[in-house]
From TrEMBL:
It comes from Knoellia flava TL1. InterPro entries: Flavoprotein-like_sf, FMN_Rdtase-like_dom. Residues 41-176 form the NADPH-dependent FMN reductase-like domain. Pfam families: FMN_red (PF03358). This is Flavodoxin.
Length: 227
């Protein structure tokens, strides 16, 4: 069993890493993770913990990552990129679009992704109408991955929903595009309560980190052609 439980690091949303490297095989990449716990910071979150482990694993492949908890921000309901005064989605959206890899993390409630995650998916709908010079959504060429936690079943169904929604708005999903942990049904042990990370979860996280970084570098080297 691998002891890789790690402390979650939250980074200021305003941080912009230097991505001026020109060698796409070794260039540093940027990952932005948005987690959708129902609990505001600084309350511990299993979803944040597993997502941070994924970011740490990506760091071994030259990826700089930051993690933000969505519920700490005022994300107004709607499907526009900016829902007006007080809406904090535009700042998060710019972080998503500035990153090579977008990670969306959610807990499991009643077998479903959280209501916060659904709000994020609805706000991402606006990306269909914001296009680049080739007429493609600005999300084209960016990789998306998922993180799911919960002490009940549902990870496969949730990741399928996230994959479809993220792909619909232009993100590319790598092979093995989710890492997850499901605890025993109807029990109270959370991922953050474990003394050690289960070996299967650790290996899945490591594989996703490698695949996401590899795919992001491929897309940076060779963008999707115009239709």
């Amino acid at each position: 069993m691998a002891r890789v439980l790690a402390r979650v690091r939250h980074v200021d949303v305003g941080y912009l890493p230097d991505m001026t490297d020109t060698d796409t095989d070794t260039a540093r990449l940027c990952a932005f993770a948005l987690t959708c716990s129902l609990k505001p910071s600084p309350e511990p979150s299993s979803t944040d913990l597993l997502t941070q482990q994924l970011l740490d694993a990506m760091g071994e492949h030259g990826v700089e990552g930051e993690l933000v908890r969505a519920v700490d921000h005022d994300l107004r309901p709607g499907v526009e990129s900016d829902m007006g005064e007080g809406d904090e989605w535009p700042a998060l959206r710019e972080r998503i679009l500035a990153a090579d890899i977008f990670v969306l993390g959610t807990p499991t409630w009643m077998g479903q992704h959280s209501s916060v995650a659904q709000r994020v998916l609805e706000r991402l709908d606006a990306e269909l109408s914001d296009t680049n010079d080739a007429g493609q959504p600005r999300t084209y060429g960016r990789v998306a991955a998922a993180v799911v936690t919960g002490n009940e079943d549902g990870a496969h169904a949730i990741s399928a929903t996230l994959f479809q929604a993220l792909n619909d708005v232009g993100f590319t999903i790598p092979a093995g595009g989710v890492t997850y942990w499901n605890g025993e049904a109807m029990h109270t042990t959370d991922y953050k309560d474990l003394d050690e990370t289960p070996e299967k979860t650790a290996s899945t996280t490591a594989t996703l980190a490698a695949n996401a970084a590899h795919l992001a570098r491929l897309l940076r080297r060779s963008a999707y052609p115009p239709a």
